[in-house]
């Protein structure tokens, strides 16, 4: 019995100890919450960790992140430990670090990764196992490393790779690149040390390469001996053929698909270059001949004989004059790029033969006027930017009705001519920025009815006349930033009924006249940043400036430059019922009227940073129920309690850094149920019990990222000043409800295990103890009442009633004269059965238990023998007689029925063995009843036959 009980008990205690061990360890090592060191996780699961001087890959990035930018740090080694939790990663940017080693198996968990960028690091060798696990990688960039060797199986996992950039390394051959990347389409090997290209080094079978860049490699030989490039369309050999090239292409059909070729800066002979062009001639459409000092005209003539050539780029060739014969043979050109030369003159007939020309680029030259040669052409895009054109004449664009895009920016135009646009009826985009323009001269009061984009920023405009843009009824984007506008008059934007974007930033605007924006019914974005707008008080103004802009979505009015503080009139935003974004940053505001936002119920984002709003009215934000982003940094706030009254149930982004509050109340944070990002950078905190809840919340909450929380510093009390907030121990400040809940749960679990164990192994012991207690209570109650009413109480099962009434009762009562107590005859009606049992046992000198198999299964019989056993222990007298009607194996006897045998093996009578000597059985029973109640140990031994199971009673 001890062994049976001890093993479960030992397991129980080990289990209990294990639960408590886990509990206490977890309570002192809380699970890390949503706190990152110097990383910003955006709402679209992008972690921005650039420029933070990380020396190792950060370990606290949440598993849900799909994009990580760790560029411009100091990481030197990559291994799988910090990446083990980032299985959802799609893009990883590690450019501009110090990575010299990537351990094997680093990316085994990143099976979803699609883009990996390791540019500008210090890798010298690509080793086997370095990219294991990247089975879905499609783009790999390794440019600007020191790679000189690629191990044979480096790319064995990259079966889906489409883009590979190995530019600016130290490779001397192309081996092992395509062996495991069958679907590679773009390969950049720019600026390595490859002197010879052999096709067999890349592959001996057909590939899917579309773009191959071998530029800046100083190639001396190009040998293509097999048709491995059936899909190749772009081949770049720029700046590589210094001393001539051995060009061996066994079959011209091998490059029959190449449509774009770059042989810029090649120094080979004309014959060698013509050989290259001849190989690709049939399919060539785009040719780059930049930086060609010699043979340029011959190459142009040779190339333009190809009827498929449609785009020709001849930049940086020092061309000064475009003669009438230079492009005579290029009749099929669609695009001609003459940019970044030194052109001062273009012959009038230079483009006469280019009857298919649509795009003409002459940017960054030295033209002083619009060349006559462009007239009567069918070009749709013309770029004359960054020349020396100092004026426009009426006929400069004569007959250019097909022109759609015109770049005239970065020329010293000074002023426009109102007749210059007469034929630009289909123009949609006009770029005039950085052109020193001081007067528009009514240029946009007529013509150009289809213009959609007009850029006039960074000019010298000081005044805009009434209806200055009235002809531009299709204009959608107007950029006027960086001019010298001082006043916006009524009717300035008359006619701009389709305008959606207006930029007036960095002018000198001091006031907005009534009706200035009245014609801009479709306006979505208005930028008035960095002007000089002044309002004297918060009192309502007669003519709110935006009253008619009901469709405005974004209003930017930050950084008004003035010497005194700015006031915002109470009804300044009247009419902006659909406003979503408002930026009033850096305006030196000292207060805001409680009704400021009464007319903007749909605001989604507000930036009030950089003002002097020491206190914010409690009901200021009450009208805004849809706000998602709030920026209120650098405004000297002393409390965040105003958030309790704002009802920001949808607020996701809150930036309140560099303010004066030092305590954050629990109610404030809990009121922001949707908060995902909280920036309190630059605040100083009180490091005592006032912030205990906030400190715990920063560490444990799983929803809100508290940016830069590791660098929060204490300002009070003085002895903790300068210490980090997250290093403060505030366990003594709070009642840890989680701890209490954990204790309660642990106790409940332990109690459940204990009850289950007890019920399974100790059920009878408990029941026995219960009845022993009842008997004890009875004995204590009746200890002075010792008169015995009966000689013996007979405990038996109803199924044995026949033997009791037919054999036992006649012998003991009729023949021997004993007075017996039988439950069916002598129990008092109406009294509780247990009380009857207890009274009967203690009211009799002896208890006779008639034991049979049925008796052992009876609950009430069990209780009777338990009470009798207690009396046996309590009185230490021989008061219990066991009569076995049948042989019962020992293993079937419960510990309670074996109790007397375990204590004193005596007075066992067996009826089943009395067949031969029944008179002896009755005599022994008479003697047992007749025996006086001697103390146990001075009793008369009566049992001479074997016990109930065949064992000797004294064994």
UniProtKB/TrEMBL annotation:
The topology of this chain with respect to the membrane is: Single-pass type I membrane protein
**Ranges where the record places region Disordered:** 936-955
Q: Which residues form the TIR domain?
A: 788-929
UniProt xrefs under InterPro entries: Cys-rich_flank_reg_C (IPR000483), Leu-rich_rpt (IPR001611), Leu-rich_rpt_typical-subtyp (IPR003591), LRR_dom_sf (IPR032675), TIR_dom (IPR000157), Toll_tir_struct_dom_sf (IPR035897)
Name the major location: membrane
Location in the cell reads: Membrane
State the UniProt keywords alphabetically: Glycoprotein, Immunity, Inflammatory response, Innate immunity, Leucine-rich repeat, Membrane, Receptor, Repeat, Signal, Transmembrane, Transmembrane helix
Report TM segments: 12-36, 761-778
**Family affiliation:** Belongs to the Toll-like receptor family.
- Name used for this protein in its record: Toll-like receptor 13
Q: Which organism is it from?
A: Gadus morhua (Atlantic cod)
Q: Which gene encodes it?
A: LOC115537349
């Amino acid at each position: 019995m001890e062994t049976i009980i001890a093993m479960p008990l030992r397991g129980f205690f080990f289990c209990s100890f294990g639960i408590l061990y886990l509990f206490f360890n977890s309570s002192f090592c809380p699970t890390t919450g949503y706190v990152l060191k110097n990383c910003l996780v955006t709402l679209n699961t992008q972690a921005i960790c650039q420029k933070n001087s990380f020396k190792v890959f950060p370990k606290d990035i949440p598993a849900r992140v799909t994009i990580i930018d760790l560029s411009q740090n100091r990481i030197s080694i990559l291994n799988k430990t910090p990446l083990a939790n980032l299985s959802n990663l799609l893009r990883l940017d590690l450019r501009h670090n110090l990575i010299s080693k990537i351990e094997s198996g680093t990316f085994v968990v990143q099976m979803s990764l699609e883009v990996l960028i390791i540019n500008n690091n210090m890798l010298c060798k690509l080793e086997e196992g370095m990219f294991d696990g990247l089975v879905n990688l499609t783009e790999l960039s390794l440019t600007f490393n020191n790679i000189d060797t690629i191990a044979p199986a480096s790319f064995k996992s990259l079966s889906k790779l489409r883009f590979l950039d190995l530019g600016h390394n130290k490779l001397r051959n192309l081996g092992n690149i395509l062996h495991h990347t069958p679907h590679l389409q773009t390969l950049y090997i720019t600026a390595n040390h490859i002197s010879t290209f052999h096709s067999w080094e890349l592959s001996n079978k057909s590939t899917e390469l579309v773009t191959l860049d071998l530029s800046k490699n100083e190639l001396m030989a190009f040998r293509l001996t097999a048709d491995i490039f059936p899909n190749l369309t772009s081949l770049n050999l720029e700046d590589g053929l210094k001393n001539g090239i051995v060009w061996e292409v066994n079959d011209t059909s091998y490059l029959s698909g190449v449509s774009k070729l770059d042989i810029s800066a090649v120094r080979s002979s004309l014959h060698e270059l013509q050989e290259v062009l001849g190989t690709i001639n049939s399919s060539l459409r785009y040719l780059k001949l930049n930086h060609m000092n010699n043979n340029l005209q011959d190459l142009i003539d040779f190339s333009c004989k190809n009827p498929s050539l449609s785009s020709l780029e001849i930049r940086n060739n020092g061309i000064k004059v475009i003669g009438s014969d230079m492009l005579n043979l290029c009749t099929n050109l669609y695009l001609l790029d003459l940019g970044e030369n030194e052109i001062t003159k273009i012959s009038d007939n230079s483009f006469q033969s280019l009857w298919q020309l649509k795009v003409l680029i002459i940017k960054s030259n030295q033209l002083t006027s619009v060349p006559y040669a462009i007239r009567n052409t069918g070009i749709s895009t013309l770029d004359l930017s960054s020349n020396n054109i100092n004026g426009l004449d009426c006929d400069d664009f004569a007959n250019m009705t097909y022109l759609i895009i015109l770049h005239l920016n970065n020329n010293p135009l000074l002023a426009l001519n109102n007749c210059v646009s007469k034929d630009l009826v289909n123009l949609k985009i006009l770029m005039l920025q950085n052109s020193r323009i001081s007067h528009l001269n009514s240029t946009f009061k007529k013509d150009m009815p289809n213009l959609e984009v007009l850029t006039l920023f960074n000019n010298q405009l000081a005044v805009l006349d009434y209806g200055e843009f009235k002809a531009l009824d299709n204009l959608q984007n107007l950029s006027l930033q960086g001019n010298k506008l001082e006043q916006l008059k009524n009717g300035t934007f008359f006619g701009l009924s389709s305008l959606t974007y207006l930029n007036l930033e960095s002018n000198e605007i001091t006031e907005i006249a009534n009706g200035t924006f009245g014609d801009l019914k479709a306006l979505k974005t208005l930028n008035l940043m960095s002007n000089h707008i002044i309002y004297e008080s918060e009192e309502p103004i007669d003519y709110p400036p935006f009253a008619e802009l009901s469709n405005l979505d974004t209003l930017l009015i930050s950084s008004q430059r003035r010497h005194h503080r700015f006031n915002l009139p109470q009804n300044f935003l009247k009419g902006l019922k659909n406003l979503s974004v408002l930026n009033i940053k850096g305006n030196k505001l000292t207060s805001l009227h409680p009704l400021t936002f009464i007319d903007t119920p749909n605001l989604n984002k507000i930036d009030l940073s950089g003002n002097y709003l020491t206190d914010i009215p409690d009901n200021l934000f009450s009208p805004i129920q849809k706000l998602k982003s709030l920026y209120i940094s650098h405004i000297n706030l002393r409390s965040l309690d105003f958030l309790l009254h704002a009802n920001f149930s949808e607020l996701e982004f809150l930036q309140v850094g560099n303010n004066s509050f030092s305590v954050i109340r629990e109610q404030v944070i809990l009121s922001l149920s949707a908060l995902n990002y909280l920036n309190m950078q630059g605040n100083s905190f009180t490091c005592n019990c006032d912030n205990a809840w906030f400190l715990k919340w920063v560490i444990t909450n799983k929803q809100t990222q508290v940016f830069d929380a590791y660098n929060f510093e204490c300002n009070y009390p003085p002895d903790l000043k300068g210490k980090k907030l997250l290093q403060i121990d505030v366990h003594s400040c709070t009642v840890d409800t989680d701890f209490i809940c954990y204790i309660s749960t642990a106790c409940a679990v332990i109690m459940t295990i204990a009850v289950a164990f007890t019920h399974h192994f100790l059920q009878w012991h408990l029941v026995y103890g219960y009845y022993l207690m009842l008997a004890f209570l009875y004995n204590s109650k009746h200890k002075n009442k010792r008169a015995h009413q009966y000689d013996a109480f007979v405990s038996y099962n109803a199924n044995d009633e026949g033997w009791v009434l037919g054999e036992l009762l006649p012998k003991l009562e009729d023949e021997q004269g004993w007075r017996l107590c039988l439950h069916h005859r002598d129990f008092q009606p109406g009294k509780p059965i247990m009380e009857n049992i207890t009274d009967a046992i203690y009211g009799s000198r002896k208890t006779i238990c008639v034991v049979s198999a049925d008796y052992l299964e009876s609950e009430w019989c069990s209780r009777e023998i338990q009470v009798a056993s207690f009396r046996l222990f309590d009185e230490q007298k021989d008061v219990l007689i066991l009569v076995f009607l049948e042989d019962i194996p020992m293993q079937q006897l419960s510990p309670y029925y074996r109790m007397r045998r375990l204590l004193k093996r005596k007075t066992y009578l067996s009826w089943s063995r009395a067949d031969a000597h029944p008179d002896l059985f009755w005599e022994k029973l008479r003697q047992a009843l007749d025996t006086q109640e001697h103390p146990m140990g001075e009793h008369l031994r009566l049992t001479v036959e074997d016990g109930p199971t065949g064992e000797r009673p004294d064994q």
